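ARCHIVE CARD
Drawer: 12
Card no.: 0347
Subject: one protein chain, sequence and derived structure
Cross-reference: see card 0346
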Amino acid sequence: MTERRFSPPLPPSPELPVLDVASPHSTLTLRACLRAAEAVARAGRSSALLLLVLLWPPSLSGCLAPPADETPATAPQPRTQLGAGRSGRVGERGSEGAARAGGRAPVSERGGGGGAAAGPAGRGMSMPDAMPLPGVGEELKQAKEIEDAEKYSFMATVTKAPKKQIQFADDMQEFTKFPTKTGRRSLSRSISQSSTDSYSSAASYTDSSDDEVSPREKQQTNSKGSSNFCVKNIKQAEFGRREIEIAEQDMSALISLRKRAQGEKPLAGAKIVGCTHITAQTAVLIETLCALGAQCRWSACNIYSTQNEVAAALAEAGVAVFAWKGESEDDFWWCIDRCVNMDGWQANMILDDGGDLTHWVYKKYPNVFKKIRGIVEESVTGVHRLYQLSKAGKLCVPAMNVNDSVTKQKFDNLYCCRESILDGLKRTTDVMFGGKQVVVCGYGEVGKGCCAALKALGAIVYITEIDPICALQACMDGFRVVKLNEVIRQVDVVITCTGNKNVVTREHLDRMKNSCIVCNMGHSNTEIDVTSLRTPELTWERVRSQVDHVIWPDGKRVVLLAEGRLLNLSCSTVPTFVLSITATTQALALIELYNAPEGRYKQDVYLLPKKMDEYVASLHLPSFDAHLTELTDDQAKYLGLNKNGPFKPNYYRY
């Protein structure tokens, strides 16, 4: 005999009492009768159960009614639940009994047929008050339904579980017009804490109730009594300190540089104003600059990338930081201005990421700009702006192009984007890449990293390029080089990483397929023409933090991530180790420009010296337990090299 699944075995029982028809109101008699029915049903003997049902004496129908003092006020139902919980009262079935039996609803509610109620605490069946004898075929069918209801009751329990719908208190809205800058509430945050935790590890620990008040309207002070900062919530400083300590563990080279130069204070007297992403990794850089003697004031280069708890930790440590996640455009420029414009403090060094800070100082504070001793820029967008100023003869200070240094191009741009592109897309869309058609605009180092990751997961990748050399590299790497117009109707994902403007226009967006994902891996938000989507005929619907559905009148929707801003730092995080390489390069560039003798660097844009690139790389090799081979004197003479480097000429392409 096959034991029935999900049914606990019956406790040992003596010989069942005989049904006493002469005592219809006997509780013991009724309970014994039902126990017999239950035992037969568990044994799978449908025909025997059916026989018991058919032989049920009409005189027992009175037993089904409750005592007079317990009769409900409502009218009796045509069908009465009859059950025999082994430890319960007679007739104690229905939803209450099912709750005691493990939360199962009666079978009649689960669509199990025959009205049988099943649960671990007991079995039951539904009987009419007057029992006419049905036909044999109908009897067998009813018995089969009862047995099936018991057998699959666990499935019914699952399928009938109430569905809990997740509600975003403020995000579930449609946008027909972009909110005004003044007083605009951040569209980047997720009101639901569960959503924030699920989709962004860079999310803040802020209580959502604080989102109603702009940080500009708050009066906050740190433990030292200073209010020279503006962050989301200074109370998050403890959480931010933990994030910074975790980042330090994988930034050993930068920490090593801090320890080596801390005694010499090579940046003593330096007043650095910075505009970068404010994350745990950049916090390690900022604190390193402070440890080397610099005074720092900082703002964010991206309105969505700031980790609020990290900004709070920096403010608690005494750094004048003005940034929070979800700034408006007006907030963005206000924060930059607060960093630059302070009575009794004037910057003499700039560390920029994107060129916005440099542009602001050049336009708004020309006298301050002329006294800057050096600019360090790490993005392709910012470098382009510097070269434009230099070409026009308006660059009156020396600048260091960190973006094109080997340690930035070949590591941050390539390896960082190779991992973070997938992280950002997965967190925001949960998309599966196998078989998806993806077009990547640009095959520089960022594009190469993105394409390598997407190809490894089985995506079909197309490339758009303007440079024949990069296009040939893409072809040799196995990608098809196309024009965007040729594939825009069929691709599932569009990724821009060119540093240019209007790479994806409104015309392209109009022709995209339904549910196409559009995102940007370049620094600036100009690559996707998001402004053209702020029109009355299109509806904006916020579905997740950093995820908007732009809905066309015909119902087609395009999934826009981070409103066209940098995907990885807006929607996820980036690998700490590779940022250590970039941060160390930036720190050395600042030290070099600040301590360089007058005349070494003119009013132009310079690349990082090759020797410095090699030094940054050597600081990170111990993390891999790597051991370099040393040249012999004869070998060094043969190659015409110094044994200690540099080992490649400046024109060498790695």
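Annotation on reverse: DSSP finds 24 helices and 19 strands in the chain. The first strand starts at residue 79 and ends at 83.
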